[in-house]
Amino acid sequence: MKTLKSAQTCCASKYRHSNSASQRHNFAFNTPIPIQCSITRCTRVNCMPRDAVHQQWEDRALSKLDRRTLLSFASILLASQACIPEAKADPNKVFVAGATGETGRRIVMALRAKGYHVIAGCRDPQKALTLGFGLDKEVAIRQADVTKGPEVLAQAMEDAQAVICATGFSGVNVTKVRSVDEQGTKNLVDAAKAKGVSKFVLVSSLLTNAKAIGQEDNPNYKFLNLFGGVLDAKLAAEKYLRASGLNYTIVRPGGLAKEPPEEVGNLIVGKEDTLFGRDTDPGRRISRDTVAAVCVAALVQPKADNKVIEVVSSPSAPVLPEDQWFL
């Protein structure tokens, strides 16, 4: 099995990223919940604009999002390029599935801050451009819908040495959850095997294995699984990856927060099936920035190989050195 070499560490490894949230999420695990749309008063999950008024509102919001994300990405771009030698031979390249999502975009920036070259896989390349990915010549934007099959995904991966999967279903029709969170991830695993990648990192969720560990009555599990059985779908994807023969790391985060780590707290790492999102746990939420940092560290930390970890944060937790992130 090939070993992914560590990319050069850049002085811009700490960064902040702000974004515009278009929907509210469950306090525990970032699952979309029905909210009342400010335009149409619709209460459907992930209500999308359908008329001219809605479109104008969306365009204004996107314009604001563009300015903020472009500025954030540009600052990381300038710092990271300043730290990368012009003649660097055979640079590491990582394929990020779900690169335009809230967590995926942070993973892209975290990779660039560490000097990696990135293939940003996404359903909508235009969205990647609005996020500023096109400003960086070391970020290749590729259309990559995980529901389209492993052949399409393998082509999008090109010569990437590693894959980080940060996909997740979003939409109104929850009957299609498994097409993304289960079969979509399986397609990505099959593509990675075909390409012979050296590492596969999967962003999953706490409580995927709830039924097997006596947590089937956990209110967080019961609530989240109402949405198309999303946790069951993620568990099936985890099992498929673990049986694939690929060198993997599965990261199960708690409630995903858009705020930076300075506001959410320091990283807390638990072993597989030890954190449940309860009040008695050492933490329940975690910054998406922290999740991105953990995913990038998993590429080079030997202790991360073939391991499942669960991650949350707490303001009262001590700072955890990176070499202790993988138990």
UniProtKB/TrEMBL annotation:
It comes from Dunaliella salina. InterPro entries: NAD(P)-bd_dom, NAD(P)-bd_dom_sf. CDD domains: SDR_a5. Pfam families: NAD_binding_10. This is Pyridine nucleotide binding protein. Residues 98-302 form the NAD(P)-binding domain.
